Amino acid sequence: MIKKMIIEVNQIMEDIYAFISILCSGCSPHDLGETIALNSHQNNDQISPSSSYLTDNLAIIVWQSSFQDGSGYGVYGQLVKTKTDNNEEIQLIGSEFLVNTRTISDQTDADVSGYIFGSRFAVVWGNEWNENSTCCSIRAQVFYADGSSTPTAIGGELTISASNSKNAKVINLPDSELFVVAYQRFESPNTEIYAVVYNASGTDSDNEPVEVTSEFQVSSGSGDEQTNPDLLELLDNKFVFFWENHNADSNEHTISMQIYRWSGEGTISTYKVGGEKTVSSSTDGDQTLPSSVHVDFYNQGKFPNFTYFAVAWQSSGSASDIDGIYFKWCQYDYENTQVIWITNTELMASQSTVGQQRFPAVEYFQTDEKDMLSFVWQGQHNVSVYDENSNVTYEIQTDVRASFFDISGQDIEPTRLGSDATISKNNIFGDSAPQISAITTDRFLVSWQDVFVDSKGFGIAAQLMSSNNAPTVINPIEDQEADYGTYFEYVFPSDSFSDDDPNFSTLEYTANEKGETELPDWLSFESSQRNFSGNAPEICQTVIEIEVHARDECDGEIIDTFNLTVVNSAPVLKQDVLNPEATAGNDFEYIFSEDCFTDPEEGTLTYSKSCPDSDTELPSWLLFDQENRKFYGEVPIQCPETFNVTLTALDECSSSTSTNFSISIERYPPYVNEGIEDQIALGTDLFEFQFDDDCFSDSHDSDLTYSSLMSDGDDLPDWLNFDPTKRKYIGTAPNSNLDLDITVTAQNECEQSVTQSFTIKVRVSDVSPSSYRQLFCSLFIFSLITIFIHF
């Protein structure tokens, strides 16, 4: 009885195994989250999964389950996606569902399509024995699935081929309601590849899927046995069939292909595109079990007129007489309907030469940076088994492997990324029959039959996987300054970048000036210390855009950019500029001190003047001699004012410092030239007085205006009027004795003024009114007598 089992790594193995984790070398894919069991029913065995991408973050997996439907194997399925709050874990949608309706005998070898137009998918499988005890029919069922719940069947179970048929495969045609089923069927004396096209929506009111072409033969019958078909969709209703071609004479198995196009009517066999081709070029051993994938670069707008596909297969005896996984990368020219082999010879997807590498599957998926092909297959490893007496026997057990290839580029041969990875974590007993499907950007799902994933027999294991993730910027590097002519050093923080891949932790850094391949000569970068250093040049201020590249071990790269500014220090204001005064009508000159500004770099300063207020301008008369630091000019005759001036000191690099000061303009006011003498006004007599125009003078000979008030500020008395334009007082004084103290103010256009006072002395007249009347009468009589004598 075996007491213990110990896993040993055979010296010839190229991979490292572990019970609880995936240990990948190089840039292999890595797992996300835990491996889970897709099957909720765990009695007996669940085996042979098939998976397909439906839409972003939605995939379907189907498998065959033993005695769950009551009779042999039945076909079951499960929708999956990544969790909304954590895209590194798988979430089951709805419940496990039964695919087949008929339960007679075994339902095996299920395959599932992608989304058919209208959120539908199709499942095909083989029924081992029919009701009439005939062998091997092909069945199908269409389902509706919007991704929110368990899929629901549309119409009834379809019979694709009634007898002698097996190994069915199904694809959906892009943006259409069509799906195509291919299968092998024995027609004595040979087995050939046949196919049929269905409309998933049908034509009936209940949307029952209907056959739109009759069964047609795909293979040309050039070999004795045409088996194990696979197919992929192209564009423009084209699809490609692949299969094993066994030639009895040479006893060789090769991979053949044929392109078809369906026009929407008629017999599809009349729409072959070109002839049957042999895909595999090796004649060493057998080429079997093709698996293919379409890479739609055409609709992505990358390469007009072209689309691409890859086909993989298992090759026996090609790797030191041990099976290996090989593939070809092909371009299809729509314009010339021509297949172009980018890889004329097959490439090896598997690296290990330990045991057999079998049952390949291939899928295309995208990351943010690359287009990728991922291959999975069943590998083998050596197990040393010890009994209770420490006797050892050697066994070979199976596991699930994967590899990555970069296909980012037209006409470029795929580039391997890292080494093969071991996906399945159980390494004591065999894991096998792997399948792969994309599920969302940079995420793909690998499923396989696993003896340890549930508690009873084989179950369907599922593991979410990712390619190498490029590093990310988590804390952008801050902009830096280097002082003119001084030593500069800066170490950017270690947490500026992050690499989330579980297998890699070391990042390599490089730096260059943006648009250049290197840094400026004066600046060096030490990658291991993340350190920039160097003597900043004595140059005017300049901004250098520096790119820091963080690259992981798989050449995943991210770039962060920061600005390094070589700073020239601005001039320094050491003392304030004084506020000078100017006089209207006179020359002005002001020289500010040479000690007002200094240059830290001891360079030569130049100066400029400006107005602090951008909406106004400095007076045109104000001139500036910057070499002699002198403001000067002839001040015009104007009113007093104060205006501000901005004085700016600039160094040789145009770095500047400014300060404001004010210039005040003064003007002399009018003055008294000659005094006004006091005046006498007789009561009842008309008083008139005009003072001379030279009583007042203006320093700048400006016109003066006059006004007059009582000395206490009151208006002149009603009887006395003042005409300012004639400088004249007029009026009939009252017949009384009084003194009127009068002020006269002379004002220029700037409202500057001067005032002087004089007195009008009003006195009572000595002649009475009756005396005036008697005098008037006498003069009148005298005038009459004179006139009479004259005549």
**Structure summary, number of beta strands:** 58
Helix content: under 10%
Q: Number of DSSP helices?
A: 1
Average pLDDT taken over every residue? 85
- Low-confidence residue ranges: 1-26
Sheet with the most strands, sense and barrel status: 5 strands, antiparallel
The backbone outline, from C-alpha atoms, is: elongated
Could you tell me the radius of gyration in angstroms?
53 Å
- Terminal residue distance: 189 Å
Structural class by secondary-structure content: mainly beta
- Determine the strand fraction and express it as a percent band: over 45%
Description of the molecule:
The protein is mainly β and 791 residues long. Helices cover 3% and strands 52% of the residues. Among the domains are: 38-169, no CATH class; 472-567, Sandwich (Immunoglobulin-like), CATH 2.60.40; 572-666, Immunoglobulin-like (Sandwich), CATH 2.60.40; 671-763, Immunoglobulins (Immunoglobulin-like). The protein has 1 helix and 58 strands. Strands 1, 25, 26, 27 and 28 form a 5-stranded antiparallel β-sheet that branches. A hairpin with a 4-residue loop joins β55 and β56. The radius of gyration is 53 Å and the shape is elongated.
